[in-house]
Amino acid sequence: MIKRMKKHLFLLMSLGCILLQVQALKAQQRFTVSGYVKDEQNGESLIGISVSKAGTSIGTVTNEYGFYSLTLPAGEHQLQFSYIGYASQQKTVNLTGNQHLDIKLEKSSSQLSEVVVSGKHEKAVNTLSTSINRLDIAQMKKLPTFLGEVDVLRSIQTLPGVTTVGEGANGFNVRGGATDENLILLDEAPLYNSTHMLGFFSIFNPDAVKSLNLIKGGFPAEYGGRTSSVLDIRMKDGDNQRLGLTGGIGNIFSRLAVEGPIKKDESSFIVAARRSYIDVLMKPFLSGDMADTKLYFYDITAKANFKLNRNNTLFVSGYLGRDVFGFGGDVNMNWGNTTGTVRWNHVFSNRLFLNLTTFYSKYDYSLKFGNESDKEANEPSQNSSWTSNIINYGVKPSFTYYLSSKNSLHFGVQGIYYTFKPGKGTGTQEGTEESVVELNDQHALESAVYLDHEYKPNNKFGVQYGVRFSAYQYLGKGTAYYYNDTTPGARRRLVDSKEYGTNELIKGYYYIEPRISAKYTISDNHAVKAAYARTTQFMHQLSNTASPTPLDIWTPSTNNIEPQVADQYTLGYFYNAPSNLFEASAEVFYKTMDHQVDYIDNANLQLNQYIEADLLPSEGRAYGIELYAKKEVGKTTGWVSYTLSRTERKTQGISQNEWFLNRYDRTHNLNLVATREFSKRTSLSANFVYASGTPATFADSRLEYQDWDIPYNSTDKRNNYRLPAFHRLDLSFTLKGRQKKRWQGEWVFSLYNVYARRNAYTIYFQQNEDDPNKREAVRLSIIGSIMPGITYNFKW
Amino acid sequence: MKHIRFSILLAMIAGFTACEDTIDLDIATGKSYPVLDAWITDEAGPQEIRLTQSVTSYTDNTPAPIISDAVITLEDVTADRSYPFAFSDGAYRYDPGGDQSIGVVGHVYKLRVEYKGETFEATDTIKRVPVIDSISYKFKTAEDAQSGEEGYYADMHAKDIAGGDDYYWIRSYRNDRSNRNTDMYAINGAFNEGVADGWNFIDPLQEGITDEDKPYQQGEKVIARIASLSKPSYEFIRQVVDQLDSGGLFARVLENIRPNMVNITPNGKQKLLGWFGTSAVSFKERTIE
């Protein structure tokens, strides 16, 4: 395997070299202009800024740190720097040698101007990549809110190819993938639970978020570890010009962020925090069992950056979030993510850029129960607890080598070390011995080396191709279990187990993942793109409920759980209307997925040492078409996305071994987002969603047993029905205060679910509570009424 | 345990907005299968076994059609005795007479059903069961109760038998034993193997004999029952209880419950749904005064 990998790598390198040599032969004397692009007002580095030689198609875009490098023939050039929402800037450079050029762009005074000049190079029609959606915080803020709050995860659900199983569900589904197949990165640290309050709010504080990139297909070789998507969220650097405050007061929670320079122009910081206060507001009204009820969440996001010198910048960022829930002293539960990232940007030469990221990420939960407050005098006191966590340490040096205006190389290595403590339960009762159940710790090392070559030989054609070698090692110290093969769908029986020492290899998996995206420009405004990517996944969230709970554990691939492997093909057509009036795209995708995780009937996923015996490998396929049109300029802006798709799986032992629809399949999914600015101070936003109901398994008969009515599905086919279609309209109205000296305030009034639709989340069968001889099908709507929200946002 | 607490949490979060209503569904008529409802206990007196056809629509309120022409025999494998069950008055019955009991703790039982020319068999073992020491109750006003329902909240006090893992099915009744109220399953004094051995049943189990949405009222009688379970019967009860409590944000998909009756007829084609289980049982009752 390794040998074959080496051979492939060698071939690829040789190919790269040949292309480069061809390039070199034609070269005349060339020099490089490079530097950073920042926001004039607050010094934030700007991502994806178009940098081009005016009047030509030669150009590039800034990377995630605002760095660009463009190699041009010696002589005088007009460079244009542009981005939507910013006043475009032209600079004349006279290249007689390599040059460093930092640029500060000014926000265009008005989004209202009929036509805002925007660069070409960040437009989808001109980029190489396909299946990528980028949203910056300004766009997210325009969306109607849920209870007055801007929400990162809700905003991506308006994009094509992204769905969710229902309102308040934890997680999202991309192109027919399961919720655990999304790699969610916050400043490059992976997160394992992305929502607060079981799914109603996402854990990202919008005041600290700069932008997000959602990659649904055509993955660059740099990304791996999940099969369906990468949600790459970047935090703000913090204003390096002046101290400022932003925040908001809403009906569910409030936010406050402080940012400012540590040293003007050179270094800055941001600290942002949120806390919900439903519990505080309700406290006076609670008594008895409800007194002392705890129900809140908080999160703190912080980041600092230090420009050490022209070629070195250091970033330190971290996140801490927690959901807390409890009754008196007797029930206490909490869970959350903690992350930390340190990054070092180094410019070796004006053509070689390094970003070295090291990160730490932890997800843990803890449950505690006691009986102190309501035990009777003669009863023994009792306490029990249950804890679980995942910890990751990662390091990722990544290099970009800007060889010429036509060639660049991206390469690097990555390593993540995982420790899982799947569960430890302890309990004590007065007069008895402490009892402890502790599941074995698990360890794994995920590593990768990758290379991508981006090649744009002429203004018609471009290609990015590369390969990622992934190695996954399931390591000791731990116990490996071996199970028998049995009737598919039944619990497997343990036949053997073996102890392994620290860092001893229990099972290794090695993959070659080819990646390629190509673009052909038909004319200035039309392009077609195609991509293929193989992706692998070594971490799996075990959940057999409608939506994962915060207690659903993640498990690494083991000798029993094979890694997931997906192959995705995409083909897209992209159009950009003249003067950038609007852009539109149509993409089709086809994806196969191997070794997705499924469960036997009646699987036991909690505190179960032999959990692997209850898992089934499943194969999946998904395909669809996504249509998207976006208008970013003018008084009315917004986008429309429509997805027609299907996602299915086949598991031996389930649904008669035939293909069945995934729980998250949505045939149609339509999203309309529009914002109308009436004046400088007022605007109205609307969001409409229509989606086919998700598949469900319905009982077609009942069994009378021990005074129960047990629902039974005599077809034995899973997901053979659908819930009613989902649709909803949201509105929000923003009123900006008059600009005072520094204080800028705005009121956001929002209505969620305007026509109070009772969208079904699940349908279940039960005996009527008052009359058990009456049986009924019950629809549960998580949000069954109109939800108003008011928030006051401010900036100082 | 997880489920119980999460339901409360969810109810609190979604309480302001969530709603449930009954709806009509257009579902194709299912295929009907024979269903065995056989649970033998160590209680003295007659034991009964029901054999019905499944009703081919969940919401069809007609009682399940009764099958009267099967031959059902229970064998006490340990004592090598056989009890023929005879059909009368809607069920198959056997009466050992007086205060005799056919169920004995520690004995293995085999049930044999002959129906439409094919024979089905399953076995189960009667495990030990602890006594229920007492039932207590407290009055809560609507404001004081988590569920917001006013009434009497009863607790059951019992202690797991020390040594080894014990599996239980706990059921409560309102007023009389034809009026099922709540069902729970437990391992030892809590929910997991290897923990809470010899413990007093923990809070959620104590409190679980009250339906929070419908607490007891003055004059009502609370009846609690603990039934011992073998491991396979425990898995069956766990699946049924989870299935019947499957609403909510973390709803489980409907999974059919596998029967334990095996068709031993060569080339036998029929399926017999349901379950044959055995238990030792202990009861306690108390009237709310």
TrEMBL record, chain A:
<keyword id="KW-0675">Receptor</keyword>
<keyword id="KW-0813">Transport</keyword>
<keyword id="KW-0812">Transmembrane</keyword>
<dbReference type="Pfam" id="PF13715">
    <property type="entry name" value="CarbopepD_reg_2"/>
</dbReference>
<dbReference type="InterPro" id="IPR008969">
    <property type="entry name" value="CarboxyPept-like_regulatory"/>
</dbReference>
<dbReference type="InterPro" id="IPR036942">
    <property type="entry name" value="Beta-barrel_TonB_sf"/>
</dbReference>
<feature type="signal peptide">
    <location>
        <begin position="1"/>
        <end position="26"/>
    </location>
</feature>
<dbReference type="InterPro" id="IPR012910">
    <property type="entry name" value="Plug_dom"/>
</dbReference>
<feature type="domain" description="TonB-dependent receptor plug">
    <location>
        <begin position="148"/>
        <end position="227"/>
    </location>
</feature>
<keyword id="KW-0472">Membrane</keyword>
<dbReference type="InterPro" id="IPR037066">
    <property type="entry name" value="Plug_dom_sf"/>
</dbReference>
<keyword id="KW-0998">Cell outer membrane</keyword>
<protein>
    <submittedName>
        <fullName>Outer membrane receptor protein involved in Fe transport</fullName>
    </submittedName>
</protein>
<keyword id="KW-1134">Transmembrane beta strand</keyword>
<dbReference type="Pfam" id="PF07715">
    <property type="entry name" value="Plug"/>
</dbReference>
<keyword id="KW-0732">Signal</keyword>
<dbReference type="GO" id="GO:0009279">
    <property type="term" value="C:cell outer membrane"/>
</dbReference>
<dbReference type="InterPro" id="IPR039426">
    <property type="entry name" value="TonB-dep_rcpt-like"/>
</dbReference>
<comment type="similarity">
    <text>Belongs to the TonB-dependent receptor family.</text>
</comment>
UniProtKB/TrEMBL annotation, chain B:
<protein>
    <submittedName>
        <fullName>Uncharacterized protein DUF4249</fullName>
    </submittedName>
</protein>
<dbReference type="InterPro" id="IPR025345">
    <property type="entry name" value="DUF4249"/>
</dbReference>
<dbReference type="Pfam" id="PF14054">
    <property type="entry name" value="DUF4249"/>
</dbReference>
